[in-house]
What we know:
Helix content of chain A: 55-70%
Shape of chain A: globular
Domain HTH marR-type (chains A, B): 4-135
Keywords (chains A, B): DNA-binding
CATH superfamily of the domain at 16-117 in chain A: Winged helix-like DNA-binding domain superfamily/Winged helix DNA-binding domain
Order of helices and strands of chain A: HEEHHHEEHH
Strand content of chain A: 5-15%
CATH class of the domain at 16-117 in chain A: Mainly Alpha
Protein name (chains A, B): MarR family transcriptional regulator
GO biological process, one term (chains A, B): response to stress
Strand order of the largest sheet of chain A: 1-2
Distance between the termini of chain A: 31 Å
Oligomer: homodimer
Structural class of chain A: mainly alpha
Number of strands of chain A: 4
Radius of gyration of chain A: 17 Å
GO molecular function (chains A, B): DNA binding; DNA-binding transcription factor activity
Largest interface: A-B, 57 and 57 residues
Amino acid sequence: MENARELFQIMTRRFGLLNKNCCSIGGNDVSLVQSHILYEVDRQHNPSMQQIAETLGTDITTFSRQVQSLIKMNLVKKTPDPQDRRVHTLALTTEGKFVATTIDMQMNDYLNEVFSYMTDFEKETVLHSVKIFNDAMAKSNKCCGPLSE
Amino acid sequence: MENARELFQIMTRRFGLLNKNCCSIGGNDVSLVQSHILYEVDRQHNPSMQQIAETLGTDITTFSRQVQSLIKMNLVKKTPDPQDRRVHTLALTTEGKFVATTIDMQMNDYLNEVFSYMTDFEKETVLHSVKIFNDAMAKSNKCCGPLSE
DNA sequence: AACATATATTTGCAACATGCAAGTAATACA
DNA sequence: TGTATTACTTGCATGTTGCAAATATATGTT
């Protein structure tokens, strides 16, 4: 387990598996993609469809349909922008906020469990490292564009 | 950007986007899932279908079909085990090895580019951190099982 | 040997996700 | 006014997914 790609490959796979499981809240069965949408809608302030789709690297047409599902599930609401009625801004409903918060808590619970196998110092080092790595990725131009933050 | 989940969410999303793009080698268009299969078949010694499917957390039926595609693309070969002819072991073809190696190189190139925005010390810290984190995840029982290594 | 049972893999099917091309609706600009 | 641009939605064709059921081989029991 020596090269960089190997380390990241394993990490992201495991993290992906985690995400896959832990997205059923109450009656709602939220897919991984949908949980990413909820996350970003929550994070950004009254984002437009385009903004979120671009952040997530999804085709806008696929995204449009995903949003339709989330609206049917009553987790997201879509409002035409009074300034420019072509754009539609997204927001979480009360239920959507609840679901997003619950997912967030579950993920943090899991991460804390993982951190419990480390010393406090290691935990801080890991968190700091991820931060450094994200910042570096954001600066990179070789791939994937800037993508928000 | 303060909580742990947030950091990991952003990181895995970006890394996922990266993976999405960089899997076209020569005439072969390899999907993300397929690149993970190539990676694991390469890593494990004459693995069975089940072994890889379980490592990757994919349903065996989906996996069976993915392998069929890879065989059609001439990247993987499947041999019935002489000891127990129910099990079929997987191996990369020469072309498959080439593709897997190329993907690996591309990913490492990208990672090195990302690392170029850090000091050497930071790079070492990040790699060490991912290693620690993977080990901790492997120990965790809350989710996702042990899953190889 | 004959039979039931267990295991490894494959196929049938139905649901869903994806992205391109083409459509609609609203704005901008000449 | 008319033409281009932008934001978003629908049609379609393709691909992925996983459950249930089928096949093929192995193992255990009588």
